[in-house]
Amino acid sequence: MKDLDKKSKQYLLDSIRDVKDFPKPGVVFKDITTLLNNKDAFNLLLDHLSSRYNDKNIDFIAGIESRGFIFAAALCARLKIGFVPIRKPKKLPYMTISQKYSLEYGVDEIEIHVDAFGGIKNARVLLIDDLIATGGTAKASVDLIKQAGGSCIEACFLIDLLDLGGSEDLKNMVNVYSVLEV
Length: 182
Ligand code: AMP
What we know:
It is an enzyme of class 2 (transferase). The chain is 32% helix and 31% strand. By secondary structure, it is of the alpha/beta class. The protein has a domain at 57-181: Rossmann fold, CATH 3.40.50. α3 crosses α4. The chain is globular. The model has no long low-confidence stretch (mean pLDDT 96). The structure holds adenosine monophosphate.
């Protein structure tokens, strides 16, 4: 597995746009659309993730709605493996398993199809999202993968907002890999 050098990390970081006060005052939103529309940056990222995961015997990649879908599905195509969506409530059409999790104010919920891993026992699943902040979404996703009969071998993020401590917390449940730490 090839590590990403400092220059490449900086290139990826520079390809992501910071949008201040979105979606509410005080938040600096990491806008990954500027990475996606830069073919060199997007391919650099996919080359790196392919080299990290191509010999890990992964059966499925689960992506978290919605930006996680983009990276997860693109990597699935590279690795020739199946994609599983983890979605907001009432979006998945078939029978689902749900998991609630706490937000700063209130609760949220995510869902996975009961047969997401197509009957493969203890399927080896990689979880992907664009960013980890408090880690609430990722922790609930790891739980869902387990409840659906899968085994989450790693949770992978493009960006880790270190100050929010989510990845430290998640490491108690699963291996965590973040391409960029901010
Ligand atoms: P959390 O559950 O707090 O770790 O939040 C992670 C989810 O919220 C991910 O799906 C991110 O896409 C989104 N998110 C949280 N904070 C930001 C941010 N500053 N910029 C972009 N996306 C964010």
